[in-house]
Structure formats: structure tokens, C-alpha cells
Amino acid sequence: MKIAVSGKGGVGKTLLASLLAHIFAASGYSVLAIDADPDANLAATLGLAHPEDIVPISEMKDLIAERTETRPGSIGPYFKLNPKVDDLPEKHWQKLDGIRLMVMGRIKKGGTGCYCPENALLKALMSHLLLVRNEVIIMDMEAGIEHLGRATAGAVDKLIVVVEPGRRSLETARAISGLARDIGLKHMAVVGNKIRSQADRDFLISSLPDFEFLGFIPYDQAIVDADLANQPLSDASPTVTNEVKNIYQKLAATKETAGLK
């Protein structure tokens, strides 16, 4: 099963991605978590020690130069578009409680210089992870879905957009939906977060009438307190964790998972 989690910054997508990773791993699945958000908070949210020491793949200049035959930032007309990447996960992931984590780093955009080698390596690596590896992959994406393309969109079983009761969050969800359609990513759902009342649920449902809702995560100050104290969020709130377990059950029910354990 391949799951991508996206949404506006601050809505709780990293929290959802980390809890799903813990729940899938606790249920006996082989789990690879991918941090594809430039803010790179998934390691800390999962509870890894010293997450600040993790170097994103996109910043490993020697590795990029070796695999693409072009050093990042250099002026060169030729580089490998399909570099070797199948050995990179085992060499560069971090492990915690049955979860393996890879931090991808930022996709470089046009106008920022010669960053094509980084993009070539990241896209080849993402294709390998989604199309070749047979395990549960949970990707914490930025508000865009730049790490995905037409070649890999079909491998994503579910794109989950996290929203909160707020207009900007809803606008981001609609924009992500448009991006997903552009690359042929058809399986999309929404999770409401920071829900304080039935009115919040009703607001989200009425505002996104054409979207499938997987669940509604309640607001819990314990999550905020744990985050401020730089503590792992996986055990901070039983109420939140129970709702994510319900979301996990829905995801597992929508995909034939025999053979993934």
C-alpha cells in the first residue's frame, strides 16, 4: 500500500503520517516513511533522536555527483536522467520501532540555478520506492505534490489531504485535488483535523461535498503540549490515536493487503 499525505502547512499532515506509520508497523507491516516535505519534521514527530542530524537526499552532493555524473550547482549539459537508486534506501534510511525513514529534501524549481541532477536523483528514487518496493510506504508531502509525477501517480493507492476548519485549508485542498487530476492521481480522500465540535465536521463536509472523508481527528491540547516540549506525538493523545486507528482500518479495507505483511 502506498499512501501520500498532503495539505496546507500546520494542518497536521505530519502528525497523521507519523501515527499511520506507527499503527501500520504495530500491525505487523513493513513500513517505509518518506519525508518529502521541505520542512522535514517527520523524523521528530516519529520520535527519532537527533532528527536535526539527518541530511536530506537532495543535499548529499557527493552522492548526487556519483549517481548522475554531474555535481550539483555545476554547469554541465549532460547528466544521467535515470541514475542507479535501488541500493539507496538500505544505505540512507533511519530506523525506529519497526519504521524506516528516508528524508528526501526539496525538489528544485525552475529559475533557481542548475539543480537538475538533484531532481533526477529524487525522481528516480521516488519511482523506485513506489513502483518496485513491496511494502507500506507513507509519504509526508508538502502542500504541492512535486515529488510525484505521471509515472508514479498510478502507484499511489490513496492521496490523503488533511484539512482543518478554515478557508485557506479548504483552498489548498482544492488546489491539491487539481494537481492530482493533472497527473492522473485518482484515489484521493480527506481527513479533518483539529475538530472541536459537530459544527466543525458539518462545515468541512458541506465545504467539500465532492470529497471522500476518511475521518475526523479531534483537537487535543495534549498534542500541542507534546510538540512544544519536543516530545514524540505518537503517545501524546489516546483520543487522537484511536481516531487514526479508525482511519487505518478504512485504508486497510480498501486495498487487498495479503502478502504485504
Short description:
The chain is α/β, with parallel strands linked by helices and 261 residues long.
Explained architecture:
The protein contains ten helices and eight strands. With 261 residues, the chain is α/β, with parallel strands linked by helices. It has a single domain, classed as Rossmann fold, CATH 3.40.50.300. The protein has an eight-stranded mixed beta sheet with strand order 3-4-2-5-1-6-7-8, sandwiched between helices. Strand 7 (188-195), helix 8 (198-207) and strand 8 (213-218) form a beta-alpha-beta unit. Helix 1 (13-26) packs across helix 10 and helix 3 (61-68) crosses helix 5 (116-131). It is globular, with a radius of gyration of 18 Å. The model is unreliable at 257-261 (pLDDT under 50).
Total count of strands: 8
Biggest sheet architecture: 8 strands, mixed
Count of structural domains: 1
In spatial order, strands of the major sheet run 3-4-2-5-1-6-7-8
CATH architecture: 3-Layer(aba) Sandwich
Instruction: Give the low-confidence spans.
Output: 257-261
Q: Give the helix tally.
A: 10
What is the CATH C level class, in words?
Answer: Alpha Beta
Query: Structural class, judged by helices and strands?
Result: alpha/beta
The helix content is: 25-40%
**Beta-sheet strand percentage?**
15-25%
Mean pLDDT: 88
The SSE order reads: EHEHHHEEHEHEHEHEHH
Assembly context of the chains: single chain
